[in-house]
Amino acid sequence: MLVYPAREYEPEHEKLVHFELGRRIAALLGMQFGGEYEAGRGYAGRLYFIPSDTLIGAELIEALGIKTEADLFGGVAPHAFVPTKAISHGLLLPDAYAPAGWSHDFTRLVQDAVLRGYTSFSLDDARKAGEQLLRYGSLRIKPVHATAGRGQVLVSDVAQLETALRELNTERLADCGVVLEENLDEVKTYSVGQVRLAKLVASYVGTQRLTADNRGEMVYGGSDLIVARGGFDALRLADLPADFRTAIAKARAYDQAAGQCYAEFFASRRNYDVAGGMDSGGTLRFGVLEQSWRTGGASSAEIAALEIFHAQEHIQLVRASTLEIFGRQAEPPSHAVEIFRGEDKELGLIRKYVMVEPYGN
Fold first, then answer.
1. What's the whole-model pTM score?
2. Apex CA 150: angle with CA 149 and CA 155, to 5°?
3. Are 285 and 278 in contact (CB under 8 A)?
4. Residue 76: phi, psi to the nearest 5?
5. Residue 110 gets which letter from DSSP?
6. How many CB atoms lie within 10 A of CB 50?
7. Residue 16, class by beta-carbon neighbours within 10 Å (0-12 exposed, 13-18 middle, 19+ buried)?
8. Residue 326 β-bridge partners
C-alpha cells in the first residue's frame, strides 16, 4: 500500500491526510502501509496505490502495474483534461479547437446533467463563449485545476469578461481549457459519490458547507453525507428528499457517460459536485459542476463509513461528515476525530476532522 505523488506540487496538509488515509485503507485490505512510492525501488508482491491525483495515460499505469480499479483508491483517465471540469461543457462551435481525445459524444450525453456553459481552449473562443453566456445573465470563469472554489471570477458584463480573460493564466489553456458557466444564486452544493474497496461498496449523497479561510475567502469547509452500503440504488433506504434524488440522478448520468465515452477510464473512487440554485430568470436549476476521481475532501468520511460497514455487517446506512476549520476561531463537535492539525505555508493553521453517526433510529 503506497501513496503515489501524482501532482507536481501538493500542499503538506493534503500529503499528510493521504498518509492517514493510506494507513486506514491498508488496514481494511489487510496490507502494510509503505508510505510514499519511490521510483526505481524494487517492490515485492502486490501493490495498491493511493494517487494524489487522477493518473493519466496507459504508459504510467502500465509502469505501476495498475490494471483495474482494484489496484488503487482513485481513478485513471486517458488525457489530462478528462478528470477536470473541462469535460462538463461542450465547445461553442463544433469545429472550435479541442485537444486530441475530446469527446463530443460526452458533452451531448451530459447536456441535461450540467448547467449552461462552455469549455474553451483558446482566449478567442473563451471571449466568444463568454459573450454568448452573458445574454442569459452573469457567469463564472473557472480555471479547471483550481480546487475548493478558489480562482473563480464572477463576470456580469463584457468589460469584466475582458479583464478576467486578460488576467487568466494561460499556461495550460491549450491542453486543459477554461470553463465558462452560468452563475446561480442561493446555491446549495451536493456531493454524490461511490467508493469500492476490496469487497465493500458504498454510495452517498450529501451537502457541502463553506467556511472562511485564514484570508477571509469562502472555501470548502466539509461535507455531510448519508452513506449506504451498496450501489446508488441502496440510497433509497434513506427516504431522501427530492433535491437529493435530483442530485443523484444528475451525477449518475454524468458517471455513466464518462464510462461510455472514455474507454480507458476506470475509478474506484467517484465523486461529483452538483449545484442547485436559482438562475438569472428565477428558475431552480441543478447541474454537475465537476468530478473527482481521486482522494478528496470527503474521502476521510468515505473511509470512516467503510470501516463501520466492514466491522458491523448488519449496518446499512450511516451519517459521515468531514469538517475543515481554519485558524483558531471555532472548535469542532466533541465527538469529532481529528485527522490533521498543522500550519500550511500558504493557508495558515488548518484542522481537519471526521465524524460518523448512526442514521435514523
1. 0.92
2. 85
3. yes
4. -130, 135
5. T
6. 25
7. middle
8. 350
